[in-house]
């Protein structure tokens, strides 16, 4: 296990600043996810930790040892890290055992130790029975597990993963999420994981660092970031959400776009606000505080994804799949509201939601 201490790291390519004053410590045994849209700087941060990039300013420590900063630079092979890339990068002419053994082979580890280490890690990733197969005889998920085993075989202090599941189909991605998390728990290894997939981040992380335009917008547990977003960008990026303009006064928020309909509010804000509502926090209830007309519904099996016209505003509601047969398009409905998030309406909503591409 390893701690990673990042002290005020900035990275620029020419005049393009891709990381701005990243300052944090990743603790031993933590599963850290760097999350954000394409081009936000998350992979650059991972490459700095790995030693593939040097920071423009700031310092990086692994287990208290300075590895990047000032005149100091420790190359990747001396940082005791394992890395798994987006591409499987397994050698097609080597079987599974040889692929996994490669890092130990080039270190000239004796054959008995190689055999012991490879067999141990193949057991961890559930590939023991495939040791003699070539990569062409494996599925995509199995090839990714070969790459993971190869990263783990030398017992690194730190495991870095750069969007390792993006080439897999949806079911494989889901199963591999839990496999990687279970392996991390079993080994107690520190993991830094890069993804743009918010579901992966929610399912796997101890802490998430949500980055946009090179700046950490918020860090915290999945629950903290999902339920207490620091700004509109965070609320929008992590999960489904709709934003509605309203006015907070006298214990209520009223919505001009919903013909002045209102919801109870006991929070501290007054005046113009932006209200973020996650569609799973709305539900059909004959005594609900909002009234509208069901305009569309999409049956997805486990849920009924609905659109309700409330005044001039279209509101998304994700209801239990069982309600599908009880609803019909065009019928009047009422909506209850479990929860919502209130931001100051400072005119920056569009700017905060802008995603760098």
CATH topology of the largest domain: Rossmann fold
CATH class wording of the largest domain: Alpha Beta
Total count of helical runs of at least 4 residues: 9
CATH superfamily of the largest domain: P-loop containing nucleotide triphosphate hydrolases
- Content-based structural category: alpha+beta
Q: Examine the secondary-structure arrangement and name the CATH architecture of the largest domain.
A: 3-Layer(aba) Sandwich
Name the strands of the widest sheet in spatial order. 7-8-9-3-10-11
Strand content: 35-45%
The overall average pLDDT, rounded, is 92
Query: Order of helices and strands, N to C?
Result: EEEHEEEEHHHEHEHEEHHEEEEEEEEEEH
Low-pLDDT stretches are: none
Instruction: Please give the radius of gyration in angstroms.
Output: 24 Å
Description:
- It contains nine helices and 21 strands.
- By secondary structure, the protein is an alpha+beta fold.
- It folds into two domains: 4-234, Rossmann fold, CATH 3.40.50; 240-353, OB fold (Dihydrolipoamide Acetyltransferase, E2P), CATH 2.40.50.
- Strands 7-8-9-3-10-11 form a six-stranded mixed beta sheet, with helices on both faces.
- It is globular and about 75 Å long.
- The relative contact order is 0.12.
- The model has no long low-confidence stretch (mean pLDDT 92).
Features:
357 residues; OB fold (Dihydrolipoamide Acetyltransferase, E2P); alpha+beta; 25% helix; 6-stranded mixed beta sheet; 35% strand; Rossmann fold; 2 domains; 21 strands; globular; 9 helices
């Amino acid at each position: 296990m390893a701690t990673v201490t990042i002290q005020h790291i900035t990275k620029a390519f020419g005049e393009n600043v891709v990381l701005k004053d990243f300052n944090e410590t990743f603790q031993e045994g933590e599963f850290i996810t760097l999350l954000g849209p394409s081009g936000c700087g998350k992979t650059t941060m991972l490459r700095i930790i790995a030693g593939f990039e040097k920071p423009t300013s700031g310092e990086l420590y692994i287990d208290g040892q300075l590895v990047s900063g000032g005149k100091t630079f420790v190359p990747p092979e001396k940082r005791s890290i394992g890395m798994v890339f987006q591409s499987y990068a397994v050698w097609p002419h080597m079987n599974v055992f040889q692929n996994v053994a490669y890092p130990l082979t080039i270190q000239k580890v004796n054959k008995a130790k190689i055999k012991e280490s490879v067999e141990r890690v193949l057991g961890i990733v559930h590939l023991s029975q495939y040791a003699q197969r070539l990569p062409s005889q494996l599925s995509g998920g199995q090839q990714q597990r070969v790459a993971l085993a190869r990263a783990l075989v030398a017992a690194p202090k730190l495991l870095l993963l750069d969007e390792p599941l993006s080439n897999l189909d949806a079911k494989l991605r889901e199963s591999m999420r839990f496999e990687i998390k279970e392996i991390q728990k079993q080994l107690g290894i520190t993991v830094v994981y890069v993804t743009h997939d918010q579901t992966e981040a929610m399912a796997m992380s101890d802490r998430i660092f949500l980055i946009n335009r090179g700046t950490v917008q918020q860090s915290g547990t999945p629950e903290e970031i999902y339920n207490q977003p620091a700004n509109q960008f965070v609320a929008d990026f992590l999960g489904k959400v709709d934003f509605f303009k309203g006015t907070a006064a006298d214990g209520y928020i009223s919505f001009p776009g919903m013909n002045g309909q209102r919801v109870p509010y006991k929070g501290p804000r007054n005046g113009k606000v932006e209200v973020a509502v996650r569609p799973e926090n709305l539900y059909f209830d004959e005594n609900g505080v909002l009234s509208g007309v069901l305009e569309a519904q999409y049956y997805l099996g486990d849920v009924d994804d609905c659109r309700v016209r409330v005044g001039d505003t279209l509101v998304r509601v994700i209801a239990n799949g069982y309600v599908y047969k009880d609803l019909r398009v065009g019928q009047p409905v009422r909506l209850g509201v479990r929860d919502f998030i209130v931001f100051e309406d400072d005119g920056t909503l569009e700017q905060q939601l802008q995603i760098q591409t």
